[in-house]
Amino acid sequence: MVVEVEYARAWDSRARAPWCPISVAEARERDAAGSPYVVVYRTAGREAPLEVRLVSWRDHYVGLWVYDAQGRRSYDLDMRLLDDPARLLRRRTIGWTYAGPETAEFDDRCPRIIVELFPDGRGRRTDEPGGRGGGAHVTVPRVRDDERWMDRPAFGEWPLLSAEAHGLTAPPVVETSGQPVVETPGQPVDGTAERAEYDGDDNDSAPATCWRPPRPAQPGPITELFRPGVRVTDGHHPEMTVVEPRRIGTLRVPSGLLAVSGPDSDDGDGPHLTVPVPPGEYALEEARVRHTYHCEWRKGQVTRTDTTAVRVLVGDAPAATWEMARRPGDDPRLLPDDGVFGFVTDGATGCFADAGAWEPLIALYEKGLVEGDPDLDPDVYEDISDSMYLLRTRDRSSGAELAAFATTGDGTYPVWVGRSRTGDVVAVVVLVETMPELLPDTEATNAP
Description:
This protein is mainly β. It contains four helices and 28 strands.
């Protein structure tokens, strides 16, 4: 069987077509530079591609999407380039089983198998025989080293990795497509001065339906959530206005190591995350937004104020940059698109605390909130009302404190660390709601 190969700057997943076809020479240049590009494998008499390879070395990523005869993605392989430049980690695979030719792509009822592998030998296999939301069976996959890792082929020497999935028993003959690069609407001809730029970023000229390399979650407009007058939207309410942050007391961190964690952590290793700060006492604040909506129950307009984030205010200087807090060993190269590191909670609760007194502070938290001990001294345990902050505990011997806050659900919550222009920590923030978007005129009307 003859398999034709064509190159493009991107792949439009909705149209199932390459966007901005390019020559082999340009693809080779982009490969060497680490810029994103795609490789499409086709065979005569078949409308859908056999597979699409998605490459972005600067993002440490190679993806493989396998398509069935109906043009549905049936297999997704996510590979990562880590410290060894000669091999790739098979980080994640997803396989879908479609009941018939009429079943829609990614139908929620389609059985799925998801396998996640890590460079340290760990792994997880999730079987969903009833599809997404239909229950899952999680096991530890048994994989050999050659199944976990793949040798990195040179440009132009990649095999057809989906050959077995398509029932090809003999090695296919791979040929570069001889079709000229032609202009299609929105896709300038290769080499013209008007050629569209594509760098895999959200601000390039490619359609929104084009593949882009996976990137870790970005902080978004965190600073603006604490700036009164800024207008935002959460997608449900067309306009929300940021109001003055609400101060809920202070937090003492005499050890100089701020813990941010789920207080229900049961890993026995202390807090999930820690951030070094100067020893001191810092303000606890809530970011709030006000919005008006029509309430069916009250049959009229209702105005309410909601908390979007909580923070420890460490310094007075504005945050020039925001970074995601990580534990030792957290490797952003392993994250999926929009993936996060953070603290995990099964009780919709997080906390800020002095890491130096973590154990006694958590013990007081459990006695007061979990066990409901009525005899706790108010000097070591304090309930907080009418706030996302729930309670505060205090270690008498050191003066260290813990402040617990509610989140809007279970799961993993990233912790954002704001730094001044000189690199000093000025704020530590946890979003308790989904990050809202700035309204279009925000930057112009609310500039600091």
